[in-house]
Design brief:
- By secondary structure, the chain is of the alpha/beta class.
- The chain is 44% helix and 15% strand.
- The strands form two sheets. Strands 1-2-3-4-5-6-9 form a seven-stranded parallel beta barrel, surrounded by five helices. A two-stranded antiparallel sheet has the order 7-8.
């Protein structure tokens, strides 16, 4: 596993007077922010403020487009055509990118949100226009390795960043178990998953089976009640695992 593993988090998911997540604390722990674009969460002021805060913190700026479903927080699947997916992503990413440009920064990546993320991971036809749009913008796609996310990105010529999730369960087939309401995650379990994924390239699915995982970024959701504690555990486990890996490489090199 590469030593350049990053940590990312979904930010900017507040709306109007209602605040959600732990954005301010997470900005000091993460490398990349996936910023809500107003469809599943967020609004113009929240988008602008989140972009400015993330840019100030030196965090990479990403767009996090979701389904047009504020009530369901974008976690309810919809039947959409390829053109509808293309247009709702272009609309949202375009809006977020305007705030990024206003901040003097540059858009780094696109990462679909929630049910849209799952839909696109399973359907290369739906993912194709998103990947092509990312390629035209010259930005990365964040998603699940070995799924339509990666296949469409590769075909479109868009750089792909494979993710590992530590606060969601995986099905035996490697797909994520999306929950409607955020639940507290066990920081120790998150740290153990990171250590296993880095050292062995495997994690445990929700049925106890072993999954092989490929990743270069770790996602910690901001809306779980203890997301800051989870992020700290992940950062610590990642530093420990990478230090061990570096020591092993040095030992081999000196042999």
């Amino acid at each position: 596993m590469s030593s350049a593993i990053t940590v990312n988090s979904d930010l900017g998911e507040s709306l109007g007077l209602h605040s959600f997540g732990h954005d301010d604390e997470l900005l000091g722990l993460i490398d990349a922010a996936n910023i809500a674009c107003g469809f599943h969460a967020g609004d113009p002021y929240v988008m602008s403020t989140t972009v400015a805060n993330a840019a100030r913190a030196g965090v990479a700026l990403g767009a996090h487009p979701g389904l047009p479903d504020l009530t369901g927080f974008g976690r309810r699947q919809m039947n959409l055509t390829v053109d509808e997916v293309r247009d709702l992503v272009i609309y949202q990413v375009g809006a977020l990118n305007a705030f990024v440009a206003h901040s003097g920064g540059r858009l780094n990546h696109i990462k679909p949100h929630g049910a849209l993320f799952g839909m696109l991971s399973r359907d290369e036809d739906l993912m194709k226009p998103v990947a092509e749009y990312a390629a035209r913008l010259g930005v990365q796609i964040y998603g699940l390795a070995g799924t339509a996310h990666q296949r469409a990105a590769d075909k479109a010529g868009a750089a792909f960043v494979a993710e590992l999730y530590v606060d969601l369960n995986y099905d035996p087939d490697g797909s994520l178990v999306i929950v409607r309401r955020p639940q507290a995650a066990d920081p120790a379990a998150a740290a153990d998953r990171v250590k296993s994924a880095v050292s062995k390239g495997t994690i445990t699915a929700n049925d106890g089976s072993t999954l092989f995982v490929e990743f270069s970024s770790i996602c910690v959701h901001s809306d779980t009640p203890n997301s800051v504690q989870v992020a700290k555990a992940v950062v610590s486990a990642l530093a420990e695992s990478q230090n061990v890996s570096n020591q092993e490489r040095q030992t081999i090199g000196n042999a």
